[in-house]
Amino acid sequence: MISHKIGATPLKTITLSAIRMDAAPAATSARLERAEKLVAQAAARGAELAVLPEVFNTGYEYHDANYALAEPLDGETVSWMKLAARKHNLYLAGGFLLRDAGDIYNCMALVSPSGQLWRYEKTYPWAWERAYFRPGRTGPVVAETELGKFGLMICWDSGHARLWARYAGKVDAMLVSSCPPLVHHLEYHLPDGPVVSNEHLGPVIEQIYNNSGMIFGEFFRRQVSWLGVPAVNTTGGGVFRSKLPRPRLSLAILLAARPDLWKYLLRAADVTVMCGYFDETFVADAQGRVLAHTSLDGDDLTLAQVALADQAPAPRLPQPPIELSPLTFLADAASNALLVNYYDARKNPR
Questions:
Q1: pLDDT by residue (tens digit) across 42-74?
Q2: Is the pLDDT of residue 4 over 60?
Q3: Helix crossing, 28-44 with 76-88: angle to 10°?
Q4: 146-161 burial, b for 16+ CB within 10 Å, e for fewer?
Q5: pLDDT in the model for residue 10
Q6: Does residue 96 have a pLDDT over 70?
Q7: Mean of the pLDDT values across residues 119-129?
Q8: Residue 241 pairs with which residues in a beta bridge?
Q9: Residues 102-107: contacts with CB under 8 Å, at least 24 apart
């Protein structure tokens, strides 16, 4: 960490790394081995803090196996994170499914080289994600470290302006661990061969996903610029492939405007959804400008030096809106409500 001054503002410079990983599900041991190689590379290139994607330890899929993959806070994943942080002498953040007191949460852990741990739980499960974990209890988390004060978020949380606002004036930088599929381009592979996408399911679905392509890019960077702090975002890579939770209900809602496809409802369990992932793994400066971006659609990393003010800056302008359709948030809330019972019935597998 280097300290210097620009004009009258004291600054310190640190090196942040954003790590991308192919999100295809695989055994935790294999994925931690891949993460170890990436973290080692980041440390060798001078990273003082590295951020891994959401559910980096398992990959991303809608599957009942997720319930058994949730770990306690002292489980395999956090134990590895502490070991890696100590071994490579850096702060390390990443996301995993946490089992705590009989419930499952989407958790982001930040660990220091000395083993100190900060924990944030995803506030807003996205749509079908509510089948596998519940909304978090932590609220905003500011990790006060030797490097600076870091605000933590996970994926779809960054689509909520009011959550960004709760970090205003309290942080030196934001760390966001994400693994978002390109749901606005989601394809539904129906039995016997037909393929349809969200772009062809009528005007309501089209409106729900209006501007979705900007969530983790332009909209994210506008909030960073408003806060006046640097940020790291991570995303998954490769191909997202999954079945649907509550398949008949999910498909019935999606196909409401396509009566020509209703015949597939009886075989909804055989439908597979597919798409890519957002390519938004980057380090941005306090003006929201991307300083470094990964180049591979898979396991890759990037890093950049960022300047942190000695005192957390407070926004000077009105907060910019996140220009998503109200239908986006309504559809998300409805999906969450419809999946609560599904989650409650399956969260404790025998």
A1: 999 999 999 999 999 999 999 999 999 999 999
A2: no
A3: 20
A4: ebbbbbbbbbbbbbbb
A5: 56
A6: yes
A7: 97
A8: 274
A9: 102/347, 102/348, 103/133, 103/134, 103/347, 104/66, 104/67, 104/70, 104/132, 104/133, 104/134, 104/343, 104/347, 105/133, 105/134, 105/136, 105/137, 106/54, 106/55, 106/133, 106/136, 106/154, 107/73, 107/136
> H-helix or E-strand containing 329?
helix 326-346
pLDDT above 90 coverage of the chain, percent: 91
Please report the pLDDT score of residue 282 as a whole number: 98
Cα separation, 44 vs 99, in Å, equals: 33
Which burial class, exposed, middle or buried, applies to 228 when counting CB atoms under 10 A from its CB (0-12, 13-18, 19+)?
buried
Contact partners, residue 224, CB within 8 Å, separation at least 6:
174, 230, 231, 284, 286, 288
CA distance 7 to 333: 47
Find all residues with CB under 8 Å of 214, minimum gap 6, and list them: 323
CA distance 306 to 224: 13
Rounded to 10 degrees, the C-alpha dihedral 82/164/131/191 comes to -110
State pLDDT tens for residues 289-314: 999 999 999 999 999 999 999 899 99
Place of tokens 């302006």: 161
Residue 269 sits at φ, ψ, to 5 deg, of: -65, -15
Q: Which DSSP category does 250 fall into? A: H
217: tokens are 């890019």
- Whether domain 2-346 has CATH 3.10.120.10: no
Tokens of 69: 């993959």
The encoded tokens of residue 262 equal: 């209703």
CA 123 from chain center: how many Å? 11
Residue with tokens 């890519």: 276
- Asked if 175 contacts 151 with a C-beta cutoff of 8 angstroms, the reply is yes
